[in-house]
Design goal:
Layout (H helix, E strand, L loop, with lengths): L16 H16 L14 H11 L11 E6 L2 H22 L2 H7 L10 H4 L2 E8 L1 E3 L5 E3 L3 H18 L3 E5 L6 H6 L5 E10 L15 H4 L6
Antiparallel strand pairs: 1-2, 2-6, 3-4, 5-6
Helix pairs in contact: 2-6
The structure holds flavin mononucleotide.
The site of flavin mononucleotide has 11 residues, from strand 5.
Length: 224
């Protein structure tokens, strides 16, 4: 049998059932208020808030604990401008040629198009990269397991943490996103995963009038 170092689970907290109910309900209601915002204010946000949200992201479970992600936090106007320019080229191509009729129909209720002014307005862009493999200091490669699932979970936690801080986010996926490696000088072993726009919403921001599925429409229970 293999042996490995362990520590006591000191941080675990159990709650009485009624308190569990209250806590999970409060957590759900907090998350239910989150909306993807596409109109941002240029108001600055202290960087330490973004850093703490990134610490929350890094608590995500990951395949074999390899934490196969890298986040680039962009606040500089010049880099934001380059990203906007490159993203709009790809998005124009997407909306005018690449997207299927079906895809465009699915996007219609969101009112999105190839103009992405928020990529320059918002105080922060967080470029998320998925590391297909890691690299040891001597250059040897380390295989990463389930990097897609792991990075997706980290992004969910990041979005939730920024929301908890009172910030708005937009999960943006200009397609394809290879330009992010070039502009941000990231190695080809890292795949651009998504671009998270973060900041305060614009004062007059509006969001699409869309619905979330009801519990019975996306959950089934097996009790025997
Ligand atoms: C993987 C992923 C990619 C997305 N890509 C875009 C995008 O490129 N542009 C955009 O405006 N919204 C994008 N969204 C946001 C979705 O449109 C949004 O989450 C969805 O409409 C539900 O709205 P809500 O987040 O306000 O609940 C993306 C969301 C996810 C999870």
């Amino acid at each position: 049998m293999s042996t490995y170092p362990t520590i006591p689970l000191d941080q675990y907290v159990e709650y009485p059932v009624e308190e569990m109910r209250e806590r999970v309900t409060a957590f759900y209601e907090e998350l239910d208020r989150r909306r993807t915002v596409r109109e941002f204010s240029a108001r600055p946000v202290p960087r330490d808030i973004i850093e703490t949200a990134l610490k929350a992201a890094n608590t995500a479970p990951s395949g074999a604990n390899l934490q196969p992600w890298h986040f680039v936090v962009i606040s500089g106007a010049e880099t934001k401008r380059k990203i906007r320019e490159a993203a709009e080229v790809e998005e124009k191509e997407f909306y005018e040629h690449r997207a299927s009729e079906e895809w465009l129909a699915a996007l219609e209720p969101l009112g999105t198009d190839s103009n992405k002014p928020f990529l320059e307005t918002a105080p922060y862009l967080i470029a998320v990269f998925l590391q297909k493999f890691g690299q040891l200091e001597d250059g040897r490669k380390v295989k990463h397991y389930y990097p897609v699932e792991s990075t997706g979970l980290a992004c969910g936690m990041l979005i939730s943490a920024l929301h908890a801080a009172g910030l708005a986010t937009l999960t943006h996926t200009p397609s394809p996103m290879k330009f992010m490696n070039e502009i941000l000088d990231r190695p080809i072993s890292e795949r651009p995963f998504l671009l998270l726009v973060a900041g305060y919403p614009a004062d007059d921001a509006e969001v699409p009038d869309i619905q979330r599925k009801k519990l019975q429409d996306y959950v089934s229970f097996v009790e025997e």
